[in-house]
Amino acid sequence: MGKREIILDAMRELFKEGKAGSASVSDIARKAGIAKGGLYYYFRSKEEVMDALLEQEYEDIIQACKALIEQSEADAVSKFALLLRSYRGSYVDSSLDEYLHMPQNAALHQKSLAKILSSLSKIISCIIAQGVEEGSFICEYPAEYSEVIMSVFTFLLDPGIFPWTAEENILKMKAMADLLEKGLCARRGSFAFLYAGE
């Protein structure tokens, strides 16, 4: 493991211990077992360390979703279900998630949401294109539809931004299923997986 990864692991540990917010660059270096100057070789500030850690966490989620879809030979609707379940079930450490939702970290949180939105939108766009090929969808704007879909999942359904009740979440998922079925000219009930079993 390289020093950069050791520094990121140290930052991750500080998050788990609840000390990340107050930790200094010296604290991070000490936790990593390296000199402060060694940390500055890889990162210019504590904020850069945090940014890199978040980038890594979200990149792991994106790559896991991408691999899942690439390995699947399912039809477009099944791939949609697979991707959205995988994304909704993905895990970012709760201490890291809590840190992201602090008001002073809004810019960092927005950057993370934008990364997820743009990366997963590309995968959804390919799934929509597959559905058009299969004849199960009609869509002239797959890239734009994908961005709208991911806007709902990354922003509207982020519990740290909107603490909806379980009932409110189900209603939103029913509305989303209805929008997708009508917008993609998909068979009625195709997107029931969004709220079934909730």
Automatic annotation (TrEMBL):
Residues 24-43 bind DNA. Keywords: DNA-binding. GO terms for molecular function: DNA binding. Residues 1-61 form the HTH tetR-type domain. SUPFAM superfamilies: Homeodomain-like. The keyword Nucleus does not apply. This is TetR family transcriptional regulator. It comes from Kineothrix alysoides.
